[in-house]
Design goal:
It contains 7 helices and 7 strands, in the order H-H-H-E-H-E-H-E-E-H-E-H-E-E. It has 209 residues and is α/β, with parallel strands linked by helices. It has one domain: Vaccinia Virus protein VP39 (Rossmann fold), CATH 3.40.50.150. The chain has a 7-stranded mixed β-sheet with strand order 3-2-1-4-5-7-6, sandwiched between helices. Strand 6 (184-193) and strand 7 form a beta hairpin. Helix 2 runs antiparallel to helix 5 (96-108) and helix 3 (42-54) crosses helix 4.
Length: 209
């Protein structure tokens, strides 16, 4: 964790590493019965879930509220919260059992200003939320739905962050017209390989105008 995070210019404290270890234990206990992730081996969980989630942290603010749409087992929202404790994080997950798991993680890790919203992206309420300047998704299949939800949530100059695999550039090609119709400008495209492996990732950002 420490060496991998360093590749994204993140210096993890002892407390943060302990938080990831506790999160890993919770994933192990709950994972089988809820089918949270097919990845079970510790090195792969660290690389393909934890470090993959941390890759977007350099693109985010330290304190602006972020909404993780389609959070599932908590990726990338929980890792983001662990390394940015001052950042309000909202985890959107429609499946009750997974939403309950996320609530349990928040309690067990004693995460403050972390919240679970049990809702589908298209039904996501905006009442009661603070100003949202960032949205993110990792592995959410309904990319147009993510863009539409981001359009409703984000304030002016807010940023949507779409985490993709190696086919990210082709996804962006398909999205360009859709983004402009929903009030977004294309932002940065960041390509990288995961530490200690060759898996290719692409992060696409778009800005609310």
């Amino acid at each position: 964790m420490i060496d991998g995070a360093r590749s994204f210019d993140l210096a993890l404290s002892t407390q943060q590493v302990a938080g990831f270890a506790s999160y890993r234990s919770l994933l192990s206990v709950w994972g089988a019965r809820l089918n949270l992730t097919a990845i079970r081996e510790d090195p792969l969980v660290i690389r393909l879930h934890f470090l993959d989630s941390l890759a977007v942290v350099p693109l985010l603010s330290h304190t602006d509220a972020i909404v993780d749409i389609g959070s599932g087992a908590g990726f990338p929202g929980i890792p983001i919260k662990l390394v940015s404790p001052e950042k309000p994080v909202y985890l959107v997950e429609p499946r009750r059992k997974r939403a309950n798991f996320l609530r349990h993680v928040i309690r067990e890790l004693d995460l403050t200003n972390a919240h679970v919203i049990e809702s589908r992206a298209e039904d996501l309420p905006t009442e009661g939320l603070p100003p949202i300047m960032e949205t993110v998704t990792r592995g959410f299949s309904d990319i147009p739905g993510f863009v539409k939800a981001s359009g409703r949530l984000l304030g002016p100059n807010g940023t949507g962050v779409l985490m993709q695999g190696p086919k990210g550039p082709s996804v962006l090609d398909d999205l360009r017209g859709f983004l402009s119709r929903h009030g977004f400008d294309e932002g940065r495209t960041v390509r990288f390989s995961l530490p200690f492996g060759s898996e290719q990732r692409t992060v696409l950002t778009f800005k609310k105008v």
